[in-house]
């Protein structure tokens, strides 16, 4: 069986690599029970370090719009060159308000 592919960075997510489900519409904004995507944990953390729940619900509720965000696009180009199990700390409170 093939490993799932992270829809953001395009890298495989092998068994044992930190992963998480991202609600395309945040649960706090009405997305409970809505569509989710399986991501590398590092990709998921970068989304939440970059965007607020309101921004996610309003403007970034698809994989395509997330990939098009300038900061996320830069991050994804960088992380795509790393091995699937690559881990790095994402500093908190990096959002520009």
TrEMBL record:
Keyword tags: Endonuclease, Hydrolase, Nuclease
InterPro entries for the chain: HNH
Membrane among keywords: no
Domain of life: Bacteria
Record-level Gene Ontology MF annotations: endonuclease activity; nucleic acid binding; zinc ion binding
Entry keyword Nuclease: yes
Domain HNH: start-end pairs: 6-49
Protein name (database record): HNH endonuclease
The organism of origin for this protein: Tritonibacter litoralis
């Amino acid at each position: 069986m093939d490993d799932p592919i992270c829809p953001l960075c395009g890298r495989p997510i092998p068994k044992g690599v930190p992963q998480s489900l991202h609600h395309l519409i945040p649960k706090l904004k009405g997305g409970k029970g809505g569509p989710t995507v399986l991501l590398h944990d590092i990709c998921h953390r970068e989304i939440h370090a970059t965007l607020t729940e309101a921004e996610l619900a309003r403007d970034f509720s698809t994989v395509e719009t997330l990939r098009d965000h300038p900061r996320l696009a830069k991050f994804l180009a960088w992380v795509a060159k790393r091995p699937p199990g690559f881990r790095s700390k994402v500093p908190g409170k990096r959002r520009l308000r």
